[in-house]
Amino acid sequence: MGLIGATVHWIASGAEAEPALRVGQHDCVVLDQTLPDMNGDEALRRIRQAGFDHPVVMIAATQQVQERIRLLDLGADDLLVKPVHLGELVARLRALLRRGEVRFEDSELRHGRLRVVPASRTVSDNGIFIPLTHMEFCLLETLLRSKGQVLSRQQLETALHGEFTDMSSNPLEVHVHHLRRKLGNNLIKTVRGIGYTIGAET
User: 48: closest CA among 134, 129, 106, 120?
Assistant: First the structure.
């Protein structure tokens, strides 16, 4: 596929997706929305409900922006519309995998009651584990590493997606909304006309 040394675990049905992730080690998931036994929405929902935060690239047939937003809202980290160019898929996978690499040697990041451990990609609030998707974790880590700074939408989109940013699907707002819902509305502050920053510690 162009990912040097990559091993592909191919499955043919949505029911196999979540059990397959329990066997061996997997770095990311490519999930077709059209499956023989269920739609990709249900397979994605099962993966997330089982606690897996692997980066998921959805392959969809829809051109409608609202439908693409809905799939990102369900927990997809990226989305490609058919027909898919294999080279672009591989490039997006490489970008997602780069986002998941431990970029610094910090043992953990702290912000008030929040504890973020990049090495294990875990987040806890006052000792309670909070499951985040791959993109949600990357967004939170990026903001925490830039405390006191306002990051523009473009800076955050680049941190999450690299050069492959689809501005029409508004994925950044989706991920910000999810982080606020999971970790509190005051965690991320919107600076109108500029971007986002981490709020004051509580």
Answer: 134
Q: What is the pLDDT of residues 23-72, one digit of tens each?
A: 767 788 999 999 999 989 999 988 888 878 888 999 988 778 888 888 88
Q: What is the DSSP letter of 34?
A: B
122 Ramachandran zone, left/alpha/beta (phi>0; psi -120 to 50): beta
What are the distances in angstroms from CA 74 to CA 19, 47, 168, 174? 19, 11, 17, 10
What phi and psi, each to the nearest 5 degrees, are found at residue 34? -105, 105
Helix (H), strand (E) at residue 178 = helix 171-183
Total Cβ atoms within 10 A of residue 55? 24
Q: Model pTM? A: 0.53
In the block, tokens 């693409």 appear at 68
Yes or no: say if 201 and 111 are a contact pair by the CB < 8 Å rule: yes
Continuous segment of H or E residues that includes residue 189: strand 188-191
100, containing H or E segment: helix 86-100
Question: Do residues 78 and 161 make contact, with C-beta atoms less than 8 angstroms apart?
Answer: yes
Average pLDDT, the chain: 82
The answer to whether residues 175 and 161 touch, using CB atoms and an 8 Å cutoff, is no
Q: Do the beta carbons of residue 184 and residue 191 sit within 8 Å?
A: no
